[in-house]
Design brief:
This protein is of the alpha/beta class and 300 residues long. The protein has helices at residues 2-8, 19-32, 69-84, 103-108, 121-130, 205-228, 232-252, 262-266, 292-299; strands at residues 12-15, 37-41, 45-49, 52-54, 59-61, 64-67, 88-92, 111-114, 134-135, 144-148, 151-154, 162-169, 172-180, 186-190, 192-195, 286-289. Keywords: ATP-binding, Cytoplasm, Nucleotide-binding.
Length: 300
């Protein structure tokens, strides 16, 4: 695989049938291609319990999941590399065929800051909030930002131990540099940065409002169907749950389990496949299916 990638000089996706094999291939590719963007993309759930409803006892079991922050970081790093670089090798498990935010929306929501140009500090902070970054004045960590005087510190979603500092002089970006978030030591001067969203499901406001209208339309259909079937409790439960999610989406642009609404957020029609990691790949990318006798049955 490494020999073909080296000769073809194209981006590549290597699919493995489990996380362990993917991690082994990832380390080998890092050694073969030390100067390339070798990325790792697997499921980020340490624990996952789907939501369920038991009508006999009117019991609702809420969806519960524990996300591995380290793997989430690597997933963001992979999608960012695919959008910014050509020398990318992504080693993935079969989770790469599962739904992900649409790449065009993910790219559309990113924004660039350049040294010497003028930006409103308030608008930059508002944009960071729209991208699901949280303001953190004390516990500064990945996916957060803080404001200190004329400086805005941003901890990108794809970095583990480095952050960016944007220094303003009035509304002009005077300097941008990378620093160690623990020691504060400056590591690199930068002329420009591109800030990507802290979630793959971040969506522009007009698209979000359109998606909410479609969710409400389907909700009305489902509630009516339950009522016609004399399933009153079920109709009340789905209306209560969905309306709560809609309220959260309108207020915060997200909700728990927002991936359940990915079809509406991406504008797909009923029955169409959702966006996946494959849509982040350029058209000339190579695909390798490692140990295909095990991997293919998992995706077929």
């Amino acid at each position: 695989m490494a020999n073909i990638i080296e000769k073809c000089q194209r981006p590549a996706l290597i699919m493995a049938h489990n996380k362990t094999l993917a991690a082994q291939l990832y380390n080998e590719m890092k050694n073969f291609f030390p100067n390339n963007a070798v990325e790792y993309f697997v499921s980020y759930y340490d624990y996952y319990q789907p939501e369920a409803y038991i009508p006999q006892s009117d019991s609702y079991i809420e969806k519960d999941a524990q996300i591995n922050e380290q793997i989430d970081l690597l997933r963001h790093s992979a999608t960012r590399a695919l959008l910014e670089r050509k020398d990318v090798i992504v080693v993935a498990s079969v989770s790469c065929i599962y739904g992900l935010g649409a790449p065009e929306l993910y790219l559309q929501m990113s924004f660039k800051l350049e040294k010497g140009k003028t930006y409103s500090r308030r608008e930059v902070m508002q944009k960071l909030i729209e991208l699901q970054y949280q303001r953190m004045d004390l516990d500064f960590s990945r996916g957060g930002f803080r404001v200190r005087g004329e400086n805005i510190d941003v901890f990108p979603s794809h970095y583990q131990d480095r952050a960016w500092r944007i220094s303003f002089w009035d509304d002009e970006v005077e300097k941008i540099y990378e620093f160690d978030y623990l020691t504060g030591e400056k590591t690199k001067n930068l002329n420009e940065i591109i800030i990507f969203a802290n979630s793959h499901y971040v969506t522009p406001r007009p698209t979000l409002e359109q998606a909410v209208n479609l969710i409400q339309d389907e909700l009305s259909e489902r509630v009516e169907k339950f009522k016609l079937g004399n399933m009153v409790v079920e109709s009340q439960r789905i209306a209560q749950r969905t309306n709560f999610d809609i309220e959260m989406i309108m207020e915060t642009s997200s909700c728990k389990g927002i991936e359940n609404y990915s079809r509406y957020l991406s504008g797909r029609k009923e029955g169409e496949p959702p966006p996946t990691l494959f849509e982040y790949l350029p058209k000339d990318a190579l695909l390798f299916v490692d140990e295909s006798h095990v991997t293919v049955p998992q995706i077929g």
